[in-house]
What does this fold into?
Amino acid sequence: MSTAILDDLRKALPERDVPAVEECATTLLKALPRPGELGRNTVMVAYGGGKDSSYALAFVRAVHLALAERHGETFRLRVATMRHGGMPYQVMQNIDRTYQALGLYGDPDAELLLIEGGQVRPFARDRSMPHRLIDFNRVDMLMSGHRTYGDGRATFCNACNLNVADSFGVAAGHGEGVDLIITGDSPQEQRDYALWIRQLARSAGLKPADSKKGFQGTLETLNGLARAYFQEIHGSENAERIEARGVASDISTALQFYSIYDYTSYASGAHWSLLTGFLGFVFDEIAFNFTESDCVNPALMAHLRGLRTERVYKRSYQEGIGQYVDFALELMRRKHFPEHLVEEMRQRYATEAGVESMREAATRYGEDAFGLDTTQLVCMVYSPFAGRAANLHEFLAGEHPELLEAEDRIRALLAGSVDRALAARLERISGLSTTDLQALHDGPLWSPFADMSAQTGVLPQVMITDPHQKRISAKRNPAGEEVLDRVSGR
It folds into this structure.
């Protein structure tokens, strides 16, 4: 069976990849700690279920099988998928089809794992999303979004990126651990990322781990950043929540990365037939959103931009969507997406009917994935409670005028007084507990209009250095007064 799969893979891979598989197999063998005992080595691949990671997994599987063909045995392949609230069932289906096509199910040399909020499970396509994980992602999204006017990257990506780092540590340390991690990033990209993490730690007043500790040191540095970040987001009083959001680093200091970047054809147009034919990959309208083919969150980022423009700026939803689409299509081209996928995404939002259809889809997904309705998302884009409730009056006047007379009571509640009926009303409006609302009140509010270089903390530093952002001139009120605004996302 393995021989047949390898033969089929060789036919499906781009022509230049076939000799590259053999060359990569030779160099990977030399990088393993026990090259003479192939079966005693474990190699890990992180697999998100998107187009690039599906291609990378197919390439690694070809290397895996090529070594078995040469030597009669091969390394143990650990494939780890981090699950999160923005990953719809359609992505689990793509993963399942990929595993079937690559013959990974039932292979004794393959280990297929799901990482769910620090817990390790065997991969199962139909495993329901754990409620604990939904709550975990939901509160991170809300607390981050309430501090940033629902900024796309801050709301969804910062916490998720730290969770990805944690999943690497958890998956690499699981069981007897792994000997090598395969990545599609180039060595230069890996060095740049490690350097950025160290610089970010220093700028946030933290001490990076010893660089000689390799990937373990990077994870330790990220653990310090994660704790500082989530303390900023959730408040220093919520020690239990902060502790649950650390980054695992219990791995060998000898663990290294092995890059397949120089062997592969990463422009997706080059391996289109492999993806859609051999692997059965489907670019579903739910899972495929702008630069992501494994996550719905970019559609929600666009939705939040539309809601902020419509409700806070009192302009139109379509104007805000247009700003996000312009930014995201530019990002797709920068990431070398095939032009037909860029055009497909443009067409989704090209008409009023298309925008309305996507608005309905994003609304449904916000409810299904995070349990949040439009009232709660609108509340978030105002950021009415953070920074001593700086935007509370504007929010009440615009969305809940019946509560204007209770503004002083709301401020007293946020400062710590007890008012159960009012607290229940605010919890319904925001989707957050009173404790969380009070933590927002006591902590900072970061504005997309402000000079973040003058602000301290991990979040401002991440936002300043984020490559997935664009400064635009936006109209912030019905009269069309223009301000410098920030659009960020995926």
